[in-house]
């Protein structure tokens, strides 16, 4: 967890807060250590950006979840031949 926090530029407590807010849920190694994917680290970095701008952690997590849902909906529409904005 310490290495992941260092990579993102946050504290382990911040990563635990993101987990409590259900933004990221790391896998556990056989030794019980948290393992974060690259995608989860990108989400954590985005959360850090929002928090640095003054957004509360819970609100930042909700914003990121909504951004992710919107991006997925846009990808689905594009795949179905419905370009964004039409």
TrEMBL record:
Pfam families on file: MerR_1
InterPro entries assigned to the protein according to its UniProt record, in alphabetical order: DNA-bd_dom_put_sf, MerR-type_HTH_dom
Domain HTH merR-type: 1-66
Superkingdom field: Bacteria
Protein name: MerR family transcriptional regulator
Source organism: Nonomuraea indica
């Amino acid at each position: 967890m310490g290495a992941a926090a260092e990579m993102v530029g946050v504290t382990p407590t911040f990563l635990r807060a993101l987990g409590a807010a259900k933004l990221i849920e790391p896998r556990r190694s056989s030794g019980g250590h948290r393992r974060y994917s690259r995608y989860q680290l990108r989400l954590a970095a985005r959360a850090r950006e929002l928090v640095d701008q003054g957004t509360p952690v819970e609100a930042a997590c909700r914003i990121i979840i909504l951004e992710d849902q919107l991006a997925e909906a846009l990808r689905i529409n594009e795949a179905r031949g419905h370009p964004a904005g039409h």
